[in-house]
Amino acid sequence: MKRLLLCAAVALAVSLVLAPAALASVGAHHSDVNVRPLGLAAHARTTAPVGDTGPYSISGNVLDFGGAGVPGAEVDWGFWSDAAGGYTAGGYVYPTDSSGDFSFSNISGGHTYGGQPGDDLDVYYPTNSAGLQAMYDWALDFQTTSSYTLRPGEVDLTLTNTADTDVHVRAGSGSLGYCQADVPLTSGEGSASLLANANFDDLSAYQLYASSSYSEYTIAPIAVEWSTTSPETVAQGGTASPITLDTDNAQGAWLAGPLCRHSGAAGRTVTMQLVDWPAGETAGFTAWYGAGLRAGYGYQTTKTSTDSTATYNVPLKIYAHAPVGVYEIDTFRTYADAPDSLLDMWDLYQVTTCKASASSIRLGHAVRLSGKVPGSGTATLYSITKKVSAQPSTLSATGWHKVASVKITSGKFTTASLHPKRTTWYVIKYKGSAFWAFTQIVKVTVH
């Protein structure tokens, strides 16, 4: 049996843009109970007064499961706050020294979110950490605790009815924090790291898929979850009770339609498909976009399953102010449905712009197309003279006419002069940051 190291991902350093009444969906990883997590062992306490105050100094060290220091890790601090309406990034230390030590000075503390402490420490492990990726603890209190040891526990995991040799695992408590790791399986078994605390009650396993053969972006459309109503205490460096998950019980969430159509304008409505969701479970949705996918948008939309055999199509509008780039849509169990759930699948969309220099021209006049895409290299311009309502369904663009190659420079493009003889619909195929896709369709009317 190989050791599987497990940790988790809540989008890092985030600014949140909330749709009306969407705070519950963005706050799905938080609890309304004032419970201090034990995953970060407290050594020293300050005597600072209670409140949203500062400045404070905190320090600590990053350890692996065996207790050895982890050099080269990144440690971020920030806080969740009701007053701020979500997460506020503070600062980071990178890399940790040879002993895994870190420290921060002149930081604020004593923030609260959803009725519990909201100060936050996130750890991102170096790539040589045996699959361990990250550790998130968002229910801390910097004004009363100044020293932290960041060390995971472990759980023996068995996955049945799967041919996958590697899985992405999250374990801990959705109320307090969790660990995330990519786990190599041997005969369906392994050991995964988890955020050591007194309330370990949830584990989710995912199969990650590359968004394309050339991109570092991944999607995770299928997951299987274990949860319990009797949380277990797990010490740092300790081992939780074994868990067996059957992938035949997995549930899915992915964007409908061909991948090459998962691209286009901000403000467009796409369809998220929910598959095999157990009856009674409620799905919520959040989007991440911008540099490093660090800006967030919480959707007001939710969907409750009433039939585990049904497929539900949920319309979601791409945030109208999302910039050109990769746009990730996460699907998770809502806070109201399952406060401690770590189930969180994601799929990708690529935001582009494309417009004509004139939407209507007289016969014989010229027009150009220009815009931005999250990619580079050479794109291909296609046209069609019969009315269409959707981009080509395959990258071969069957039924469309290849017009010209278009150079993309720093994500921008401008076509040569075009002289359509009749009303024409245009689209551009490009190599995006995550996958090959088409821009939105542009119609040019010819009189």
Please tell me about this protein's structure.
This protein is an all-beta fold. It folds into 2 domains: 2-351, no CATH class; 354-446, SoxY domain (Immunoglobulin-like, Sandwich). 1% of the residues lie in helices and 51% in strands. Strands 6-5-10-11-15-14-17-20-22-24-27 form an 11-stranded antiparallel β-sheet, with no helix packed on it. A 6-stranded mixed β-sheet has the order 2-26-25-28-29-23. Strands 31, 33, 34, 36, 37 and 38 form a 6-stranded mixed β-sheet that branches. A hairpin with a 3-residue loop joins strand 14 and strand 15. The longest helix has 4 residues, at 23-26. The model is unreliable at 1-51 (pLDDT under 50).
Helix content: under 10%
Q: What does the main sheet amount to?
A: 11 strands, antiparallel
Portion of residues in beta strands equals: over 45%
Shape: elongated
Mean pLDDT: 85
Neighbour order of strands in the largest sheet: 6-5-10-11-15-14-17-20-22-24-27
Find the count of extended strands (DSSP E, 2+ residues): 38
Number of helices: 1
Please mark out the parts with pLDDT under 50 across 5 or more consecutive residues, or reply none.
1-51
Radius of gyration over all CA atoms, rounded: 24 Å
End-to-end Cα distance: 72 Å
